[in-house]
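Justification of resources, computational component.

The compute hours requested in this renewal are based largely on the per-chain cost of generating structure records like the one below. Each record pairs the submitted sequence with a full structure-token output. That output is archived, and it is also reused by downstream analysis tasks.
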Amino acid sequence: MRFDVITLFPELFAPFLEAGIARRAYASGQIDLKLWNPREHAEGNYRRVDDRPFGGGPGMVMLAEPLALCLAAIRADRADAPGQAAPVLLFSPIGEVLRHTMVERWAADVRGAILVCGRYEGIDQRFIDRHVDAQISLGDFVLSGGEIAALALLDAVARLQPGVLNDEGSHQADSFNPALDGLLDCPHYTRPEAWGGQRVPAELLSGHHTQIEQWRRAQRLALTVRHRPDLIAAARADGRLSAADEALLRQVQGDSLSI
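The structure output for this chain reads:
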């Protein structure tokens, strides 16, 4: 799959392509990432990409024309088949919050996407109205630009590609994964068995796989109901919780299960 990123700061992406586990997705060619600077499509000696907002107010607004010309260049370079044009995604506060289910959709979409990273006070709305297919947010806060959000999406998509993680099943044990019924993951421990006066839970040292999995399930339920009760509600609504799960949750909510 191919992702094209429209950004005024393509240099921010270089370290991401050369370090960490996600780099395997790019080195192997599973994800083809191309960076496009709209300044290269701006006019004038200064290659201006922004201007003052109509109506006054602080800050600057990204011009629609350089973005549109940059997008046209991407479309020409991609030469997508009819009906297979890659969607254009904009990172903005009004977008749908990025969640695991959304990441799974993009990880399975062979078209990839064109990611638009805004800067300044925002982008001329006319470009958004004409060209943007969907908007994505990382949450209720504002970043200096869309690059960090783009990196977050790319990293999440890359680690779901086959062969990127050392263990093919690793991501299935991640928080929010359907394999865990959308719950938070359980706590993890490694050597030594005792550290700082605290010991590894006995269940994890038992060697009894059923007992270990029961402990992990209990911890996932306990963490989720305490920190993300909305995920418990969603799992209930979808019928993903068993009678045993509900009994454990009653224990947690009654403060009789410690984590």
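The chain has two domains: 2-158, 175-253. The chain has ten helices and nine strands.
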